């Protein structure tokens, strides 16, 4: 028999991302009320819900911008609830924003390179000048990773284009590439299709659907969610009213009622 803990989570099971009993109140409003769900390795999990359901608040709790009144957020079983957004990012939790954040004056490849952590290299200018073998190897590895991520995001043909000159759909892909550069454990995508037209959303869906990274995304565009997510968590008035595969969610009468009012 599976033993469940207080939040109904199978005891002892370690998921990549584990949100347990999270509550946030704004005065009398319960923006989140005992929200629990898990995201397994490599899964793309979407959070949906009508306006005011608590999606943004949940995203802020997971990314560390807001501390919950109750509950915990765990990454690979490690409690990150009180950990700052910067330290969460170092722990492998990366996020993108609704308003695309890229360096317009850098090329596409330059943007991804700048997102890669500079793991040592030491020796300063002297080492640069003599081109220490270890330094050269590190640089080669960084360039290889940039090429790999650009390929993953369908950006190889644009590697030398300046980011500022790109349409918003491509800039969103550059931001995604930057977030993927360091091989995050979990990628958090905040309304990834906002500002994109149908064609741009479709291209993004193809890329996100093809990732082997664990993803949590909040999104209004149902077509995008249904097409990219393995699992969906539905929020309404701060509570989880359903979790399941896209097909299960589509057929769920409680979800339909919440959306249709
Ligand atoms: N800073 C705040 N102060 C007071 N109330 C807030 C605050 N932020 C959110 N709320 C309230 O909490 C509830 C959840 O809001 P939230 O923005 O998380 O929902 P959402 O699902 O992201 O909505 P939308 O789809 O409209 O963006 C709403 O009732 C909202 O009015």
Automatic annotation (TrEMBL):
Domain ABC transporter: 14-260
InterPro entries (UniProt xref): AAA+_ATPase, ABC_AA/LPS_Transport, ABC_transporter-like_ATP-bd, BCA_ABC_TP_C, P-loop_NTPase
Superkingdom as given in the UniProt entry: Bacteria
Annotated protein name in UniProt: ABC transporter domain-containing protein
SMART domains documented for this protein: AAA
Record keyword ATP-binding present: yes
CDD domains: ABC_Mj1267_LivG_branched
Species: Nonomuraea maheshkhaliensis
UniProt keyword terms in alphabetical order: ATP-binding, Nucleotide-binding, Transport
């Amino acid at each position: 028999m599976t033993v469940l803990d207080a939040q109904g989570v199978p005891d002892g099971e370690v998921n990549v991302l584990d949100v347990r009993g999270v509550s946030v109140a704004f005065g009398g409003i319960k923006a989140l009320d005992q929200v629990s769900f898990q995201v397994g390795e490599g899964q793309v999990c979407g959070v949906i819900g009508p306006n005011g359901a608590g999606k943004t608040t949940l995203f802020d709790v997971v990314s560390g911008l807001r501390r919950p009144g109750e509950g915990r957020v765990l990454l690979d079983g490690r409690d990150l609830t009180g950990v700052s957004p910067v330290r969460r990012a170092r722990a492998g939790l990366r996020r993108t924003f609704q308003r695309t954040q890229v360096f317009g004056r850098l090329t596409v490849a330059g943007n991804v390179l700048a997102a890669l952590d500079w793991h040592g290299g030491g020796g300063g200018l002297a080492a640069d000048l003599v081109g220490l073998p270890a330094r050269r190897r590190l640089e080669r590895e960084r360039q290889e990773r940039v090429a790999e991520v650009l390929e993953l995001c369908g950006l190889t043909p644009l590697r030398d284009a300046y980011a500022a000159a790109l349409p918003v759909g491509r800039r969103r892909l550059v931001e995604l590439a930057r977030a993927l550069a360091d091989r995050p454990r979990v990628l958090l995508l905040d309304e990834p299709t906002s500002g994109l037209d149908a064609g741009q959303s479709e291209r993004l869906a193809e890329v996100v659907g093809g990732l082997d990274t664990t993803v949590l995304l909040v999104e209004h565009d149902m077509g995008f969610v249904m097409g990219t997510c393995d699992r969906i968590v539905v929020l309404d008035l701060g509570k989880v009213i359903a979790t399941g595969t896209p097909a299960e969610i589509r057929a769920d009468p409680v979800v339909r009622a919440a959306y249709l009012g």
